[in-house]
């Protein structure tokens, strides 16, 4: 997937630039941000990291985002989540120019994706990556399959359910208040788990032959201050029952980064097209 983006980039001559903003000292976020920047540079993108202290005010963060919005050399902007509690992720997402919102969290992109608008949206990277994995396991046709999404976050659960509905699946969303969650999961031909709860989904919750996508990345304390990563699915049990299951780490994570690269490349390509249209006198599209 990333190799395909790199090839398209070489052919088009467009060099995308991704700006990643990290607020605070969250250790896991620092690792994710470093991975994103490393991958961007590895495939030949330009990248920019902005690190801000945890005490950064919303006005200060807005000023940084406005500067990046106005910088024509930057094509994609990502503010790593979670943010410190005094900052609103939803408000911050809506300050990023929609055409640079490679996370797909701005309400314009959420709206376009939800109504399947022909004016193409940026789709959040993790659900997009999960859809690629599901198609890899099952093929293009998902019509009529039962899909269960565990978790209803804005980053994964909600957009994931929307994409599965667009693929004509019958979709259920389970969450903390769901009754008989085990029984519901057992109806799933496609089970996507993004609950943030290590080992929540056990082997006997899974329908034999199901496709299981584990989005959870939980850091569990190990010995001597070390930690290990665990998914939301009890992998050793599930692997005996599922026809396809993603490991943690190494399953969904690399796919999310690949989708981020794809979205950033698309943003750069659109910026180049908008620029050449401006030069021939076509009015740029407004978001007002
Ligand atoms: N934190 C966890 N996943 C994501 C993501 O996809 N985008 C951003 N910006 N922050 C995250």
Q: Layout of SSEs?
A:
Layout: H1 2-12, E1 17-23, H2 27-42, E2 46-52, H3 58-70, E3 76-79, H4 89-93, H5 107-114, H6 125-138, E4 146-150, H7 157-166, E5 170-174, H8 181-185, E6 190-193, E7 211-214, E8 218-221, E9 227-230, H9 235-238, E10 244-245, H10 252-279
Parallel strand pairs: 1-2, 1-3, 4-5, 4-6, 6-7, 7-10
Antiparallel strand pairs: 8-9
Helix pairs in contact: 1-10, 2-10, 6-7, 6-10
Within the CATH hierarchy, at the fold level, what is the topology of the largest domain? Answer: Rossmann fold
- CATH architecture field of the largest domain: 3-Layer(aba) Sandwich
How many strands, which pairing sense, and closed or not: the largest β-sheet? Answer: 5 strands, parallel
Q: Spell out the helices and strands N to C.
A: HEHEHEHHHEHEHEEEEHEH
* Low-pLDDT sequence parts: none
Overall helicity = 25-40%
Enumerate the distinct ligands: guanine
Shape from CA axes?
A: globular
> How many angstroms separate the termini?
34 Å
Strands of the biggest beta sheet: in what spatial order? 5-4-6-7-10
Computed CA radius of gyration, to the nearest angstrom? 20 Å
CATH superfamily of the largest domain: NAD(P)-binding Rossmann-like Domain
Q: How many domain units?
A: 2
* CATH class identity of the largest domain: Alpha Beta
Going by helix content, strand content and strand pairing, the class is alpha/beta
What's the total helix number? 10
The protein's oligomeric status is single chain
Subunit structure: Homodimer.
Family: Belongs to the tetrahydrofolate dehydrogenase/cyclohydrolase family.
GO biological process, one term: L-histidine biosynthetic process
Domain Tetrahydrofolate dehydrogenase/cyclohydrolase NAD(P)-binding: 124-270
